[in-house]
Amino acid sequence: MDFGKIKILIDTDPGYDDAAAIITAAFSSNIDILGLTTVFGNTSHDIVKKNTASMIDYFNLDIPYAFGEKEPLNKNNIATEVSEKDVFNLPEHESREDVKGAVEFLKEKLEEERGKVTLVTLGPLTNISKLLKQYPKCKTMIDRIVMMGGALNTGNVTSAAEFNIYCDPEAAKEVFNSGVEIVMAGLDVTRETMLYGYDLEKISGFGEKQTKLVEIIKACSSKYGLTPEKGIPVHDVCTIIYLLEPEVFESEKFSVDVETKGEITRGMTLADRRPFSTAVKNTTVLTKININKFMRCFFEIMAKY
Ligand code: RIB
Ligand code: CA
Q: pLDDT confidence of 3, banded at 50, 70, 90?
């Protein structure tokens, strides 16, 4: 039991930037990761599971984990093609029985903690939507949801939608309308977090584990056409840096909802920015990032391990 630390549960679809976020949180002395749950997203859930297990093993992360959903709530939802893009190629972790699913795991962890827990989500919101629907009492045990997802302005997987929301818009809509406080680290800030060649060399120079993380970042991102010369975004890391140093960001509260019916806007996170709006402002949206402060905080943690 670590008193005084920020207690978090991470729902994730590793993914190279998920790995960077998880390792940043694990290296930080101010965060206590109570557990991880996996969800489909960056790649197939089978590969997500392997990446998670092998990452925990390789980086000696003493963190319990459980496996979650392999497809969205709406089985007809066609996410982007997710071939074997994000394969970490770490030594195989011994296979284990899925002793319990992500929803049960999250519920038990929340019930175990007397204080409230922060839910950090780095992928599609399928597991979280199921948790809040099956166990509504868990809403009172969650301090807030800090998510990488959405965008006030342009998307990435479509011009309107960010990938994590697009993969399961129905789940995202339910989470945004759940009444739980949300902090949205959307593309408006996360796309600024570009690591270039010199950044990656600096991180590698901190040691063997950091070198392996850089290898994962380079290998997986290259399959998306990303290069150290053009810059490699570490979207998910924003959630962890926000927890540690919220002043790295500017933010504004809005009422945010998710489009699930639009022919070209499906998966869009729409903020009601009308000055006369009376809608409940359910979401703190990160609107600006001080990239120098972000990088300083990120590198300080990377150097600590
Ligand atoms: O749009 C970026 C998000 O999609 C990140 O979480 C990345 O890991 C992918 O899941
Ligand atoms: Ca992710």
A: low
Cα of 174 vs its chain's centroid, Å: 17
Domains of the chain: total? 1
Distance from the CA of 13 to the center of ligand 2, in angstroms? 5
Question: Residue whose CA is closest, atom 1 of ligand 1?
Answer: 163
Domain hosting 109: range is 6-304
Distance 3 CA to ligand 1 centre (A): 31
Say what the pLDDT of residue 82 is: 62
- Can you say whether the dihedral through the CA atoms of 298, 26, 88, 46 is positive or negative? negative
Q: Is the pLDDT of residue 193 over 70?
A: yes
Residue 193 counted as domain residue: yes
The pLDDT of residue 194 is above 80: yes
Which pLDDT score is estimated for 92? 76
Determine, yes or no, domain membership for 1.
Answer: no
pTM above 0.85, yes or no: yes
Asked if the structure places residue 120 within a domain, the reply is yes
Which residue has 């979207």 as its token pair? 235
Please list every protein residue whose CB sits less than 6 Å from any atom of ligand 1: 13, 15, 17-18, 41-42, 122-123, 148, 156, 162-164, 235-236
Domain CATH for 269: 3.90.245.10
pLDDT number for residue 89: 86
pLDDT of residue 98: 59
In a domain, 262, yes or no: yes
